[in-house]
Design goal:
heterodimer; A: mainly alpha; 5 helices; B: 3 domains; two-stranded antiparallel ribbon; 13 helices; 68% helix; globular
């Protein structure tokens, strides 16, 4: 079966193992004598928080058909990052053609 | 956002690489790498943009983004971004005969310039041979190649000439000289090698890593987390980690081969190369065989920006694969945008 419902299990499993190896190392290498007053300061907790966000991001993006809306994807990334491209695209005549491919 | 770093980003280690949001640091260059991959693939495969606009928009966008990353300054991120762009361009160009010739010319010239820089400059004469063949094939492209070759040669000469001047930052010089063996290896590399070597076959054991826990190893939660892991889990742990990366990259390349759309395939390969190159540089840096660079180990190092950026990459790749598979199963006749 070529298609899978939630992406590719092998890729997701490998990433999860790598991530938890990182968290484990953060936990075991906390310096001797280190005592945190606040559990929010703990690197392990923060990394777990980032991990949850990361896996949510993976699932959300993998449910969007980026191949159909590739111009939309480009716009999200490049308008946000590069004012040069944003200005040029907005003021050029090709804006109509540029947006026409958004389905 | 990259431009805003120079005004709003705090000065951390003499660089403007991060935005400070509450207690967290946010690194926009991580996301700029994804943007560059998407943009390069869109630029070369899009049929909606006119030829002249294509040159201006595509080339200008790439150069502007790379310049903003370089000015932070972040040499590591610039090199990784360049590798992503070059990989996508090479993969696209290889389907044309002229593209294949250009790649052969580029690789041959780069090797000759490298040899010339390391030994004697008269070796540069040999770079005229591939240029002659390229000019004979297509004189317009040959002239562009000659200009690029000139920039490469003069750039190398300029770097060599300004090596002992303040133009080249001292930390860059120290790292490269340490890597080339012309000066004593840096403190970081020495501590990293001690950590890896002291791990032995099975490692010192959980929470027994003295290099990291006694703070001899710098940046043991980010750049040098590999050394901290190998110190505790040894050669066996390292092999497990490398096997996991091998499985991941193998699978991602397999997914790229399943996708028929050129745009999607170029992006998957470009982004896979991004993760692979970061892993390669980080492992090389930890083992002291590559110069020290602030590059995180993907999915393992501590850091929100790197983890979220890599999650976006995996999401993009899985989306391309998932919907390609769906189209194949449901309706093979659908043409892609």
């Amino acid at each position: 079966m070529k298609g899978t419902r939630f992406g590719d299990p092998l890729v997701l499993a490998t990433i999860a193992i790598l991530f938890f190896i990182g968290v484990f190392v953060l936990y075991t290498t906390s310096p001797i004598g280190f005592a945190s007053d606040d559990w929010l300061d703990s690197l392990v907790f923060r990394q777990l928080l980032f991990g949850i966000i990361a896996f949510i991001i993976i699932f959300v993006i993998s449910f969007i058909d980026l191949q159909i809306s590739k111009t939309f994807l480009i716009q999200i990334f490049l308008y946000w990052h590069n004012p040069f491209i944003a200005c040029w695209t907005i003021f050029s005549r090709s804006i109509g053609e540029f947006n026409a491919s958004v389905v | 956002m990259l431009a805003g770093l120079f005004f709003l980003g705090p000065l951390v280690n003499s660089t403007h690489r991060w935005y400070k949001i509450g207690q967290f640091l946010f690194q926009p260059s991580e996301f700029a790498k994804i943007a560059l991959a998407l943009w390069t693939a869109y630029w070369i495969t899009s049929e909606h943009i006119k030829a002249r606009a294509k040159m201006f928009l595509g080339g200008g966008g790439i150069v502007a983004t790379l310049s903003l990353i370089l000015l932070q300054p972040d040499f590591g991120a610039t090199i990784i971004s360049l590798v992503i762009v070059c990989t996508i361009l090479f993969l696209w160009a290889i389907k044309f005969q002229l593209g294949r010739m250009l790649i052969i010319w580029f690789v041959t010239t780069a090797v000759i310039v490298l040899f010339a820089a390391l030994s004697t400059w008269w070796l540069l004469v040999f770079s005229l041979v591939p240029l002659y063949f390229l000019l004979r094939e297509n004189w317009k492209v040959g002239l562009i190649a000659a200009t690029l070759g000139g920039v490469l040669v003069f750039g190398t000469i300029a770097v060599t000439a300004t090596w002992n001047t303040p133009i080249i930052p001292s930390y860059v010089k120290n790292r490269i000289e340490s890597f080339l063996g012309t000066q004593e290896e840096t403190f970081q590399i020495r501590q990293s090698k001690i950590a890896i070597g002291s791990g032995g076959l099975w490692g010192k054991g959980i929470s027994q890593g003295t290099q990291s826990r006694l703070r001899f190893l710098p940046e043991y939660t980010t750049d040098f987390i590999f050394s901290a892991f190998v110190e505790e889990r040894g050669f066996a742990g390292m092999m497990l980690l490398l096997t996991l990366y091998l499985v991941l990259f193998g699978r991602l390349i397999f997914l790229a081969m399943q996708v028929k759309d050129e745009y999607a395939r170029l992006i998957i390969i470009g982004l896979t190369v991004k993760i692979w190159f970061e892993t390669f540089v980080n492992l090389g840096m930890n083992m002291g065989v590559l110069p020290t660079k602030g590059v995180a180990l993907p999915f393992v190092s501590y850091g929100g920006s790197s983890l979220v950026a890599n999650a976006i990459i995996i999401g993009i790749i899985l989306s391309f694969y998932r919907y390609e598979a769906k189209r194949d199963t449901i309706s093979p006749s659908i043409t892609l945008a």
